[in-house]
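Recap quiz, item 2
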Amino acid sequence: MNVDIGNALAREADPGVAEASLERLDERVGRAHDRIEGGIDDREFGYASLALPADADVEAIRAAVAGFDPAAVLTVGIGGSALGAETVTAALGLEGHHTLDNVDPAETARLLEALPLEETLVNVVSRSGTTAETLANFLVVRDAMEAAGVDWTDRTVVTTGDSGPLAELAERHDLPTCPVPDGVPGRFSVLSTVGLLPAAALGGDVEGVLSGGAAGRAALSPSLFDCPAYAYGAVAYALEQRGATTNVVMPYVESLEPFAEWFAQLWAESLGKDGLGQTPARTLGATDQHSQLQLYRAGRRDTLVTLLRPRERPDRPIPEPDAGELSYLDGSTLGELIDAEFEATEASLAVSGVPNVRIEFDRLDAESVGRLLYDMEAACVLAGELLEVPTFTQPAVEWGKRAARGMLDGDAEAAEAAAEKTTLRVRDRP
Amino acid sequence: MNVDIGNALAREADPGVAEASLERLDERVGRAHDRIEGGIDDREFGYASLALPADADVEAIRAAVAGFDPAAVLTVGIGGSALGAETVTAALGLEGHHTLDNVDPAETARLLEALPLEETLVNVVSRSGTTAETLANFLVVRDAMEAAGVDWTDRTVVTTGDSGPLAELAERHDLPTCPVPDGVPGRFSVLSTVGLLPAAALGGDVEGVLSGGAAGRAALSPSLFDCPAYAYGAVAYALEQRGATTNVVMPYVESLEPFAEWFAQLWAESLGKDGLGQTPARTLGATDQHSQLQLYRAGRRDTLVTLLRPRERPDRPIPEPDAGELSYLDGSTLGELIDAEFEATEASLAVSGVPNVRIEFDRLDAESVGRLLYDMEAACVLAGELLEVPTFTQPAVEWGKRAARGMLDGDAEAAEAAAEKTTLRVRDRP
């Protein structure tokens, strides 16, 4: 993997980072690196995430999925319990992974109808074992399997902490279980049981993913000029401080679409604190050139665009057109076209002075996926150190969770907060 | 449909809009309304979009799809030629609509392998008939159908302008064609042949969608206090001017996920001009509470959150849990849970002073979908008037299109622009 930050320099972009500023920032990067290395070594809360490629419990994953050869895997989980697993299976091109990560009754019904329940492995994931959406969905899935005459206890694996309702349930029904890693927040758990079980169940090369992660671990070094992950994290931080408060993540490969969602959680929940942070915008190249590029080039100067692509990919020739005006496509391939669009978009952003960073890897395989995920986590942890925010907590989501629960069981305070809402309702004229 | 802007008022939110400011702004809304009505009456470029519910050529759609009863529809188009159609079929719950809106060779191959080509209707959409991605994909699809022994000329409909390579091709092969509406930019074309053909081919109630659009047309009125669409557009504008430069669109219903993408194009490409505009962020409730809410509540104060939901929906009870700690779910439904989460999230944003707007409609049906789409277009046009930007053009995307084309046919200037890129590449230490 390499990271090209040329188009984020002040001589190209506004906001941009002067090279002298980067040199000065590099001293702070060195100190942050020491802090991060110490945290990894001591498996401190959060920092333990960056020890995962080595610490991941592959044995537990293999044991949990042993004996299953599912046509489909249904992950029941939300947020960090779903996005990493989705990212890995999609990036590896594994078909058959579905997730129930919402509580929309219509979507739940649609999915349960579409799945071959007797050949589906249900993968329930919740660290606490109490996540309302996950437990509600699991109860619905269990019920649907019973109604279809499928013994759900034969087709369910559980990934959860040592105690809690889900751990108790697994014990009561003798279900295969996987532990959640210690000291690892959900959004940093992709290189663990949480992120890798569905891929393993579908025959994916999880060892390859972990080996890519380990290469990322080995590449951490005290200078941003020697470490792609830190180069990205440091430049994103420096641009945030200079007004690039939106970070557009734009992979030019469809199977990284879930990666952009995973990145959005990682970036938003880790860095969105104390009035700081960047809003991640999930996009897809080349498609979103036809949707968002106008804004990026000509809107407010508050955006960093992060472009990603593999240097090689399986390709497909464009058949010969029978109309003269399309002759410029003649002899080209789809891969050449998407690469031309990548470079044209990058150049068009540069011409407008919009800061952008290019992240490239040789090809999309298990190793590069693991490397990419590890490096983005390391970049995020570095950015958190530089911003001086508590990267690994998410205090601002707790109030809403308590309130939702309170509304369901009639808690007076929650009901009151919702009832007190200021309304200014605009309706059609009568 | 109604719009509740109470949580965007200055007494609740920061940034927020003082009620006195809204009163003053309403005079400008009245003048903008006159401008918009005049534009609609004269079918001026762009404004003609808001005449579409009445002007839409339903006969042409019905004629083009007559005789087809496809298992699947494959739309080959990009940007405004795909997003509207995706939005409508998803919102109506129609299964079987697929789109090729990128030129990723792997995804194209995957899709062509998954589709039953002999039962698929191919729907090629490009106003100019020269869009590189669309034409390249169509050539690939045609080739795949030939290879599968399917006569593509029997299963292809074309939506394009009066001239251009695609119109010529349609004539040469005697394909059914639909016209594109005059004076309507792609991102405003959802209530026309462009957005409605796939839904019609799959048996959707396109007349119902247009009737909802017509209700939106009838509801336009000179005051934001009497017109939901203008209330939304005016508040979004006022908040943009006060620093809410991100607009998070968060539907609490999965089948509106493509709607959020459609909205993102509408908002970004129409308003992202002259250094102004809001960055649309596409999200999904309740899922993204577990991904983005931390940032919205505690990050930079630059965000408007737009929450959408139906007031009623098909529901599903949550089966009785067998663990005591989950008893608060007892007797609830998935619908009650997602509604509790909606209200809890809204309240938690209000508690933090983050401006948010609630958009509600009775239920998700053809009429409400048409109404929602129309009202968001009208809101966007109003916001464009208030921002004084040229809402209906997208000049900043042209450079990149020319450059991509130039790279493919060896244009020296484009190649040079790309070659001149400033690089500062960070690799692993050797």
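The two ends of chain B are 61 Å apart (CA to CA).
Chain B touches chain A through 150 residues (CB under 8 Å).
End of item.
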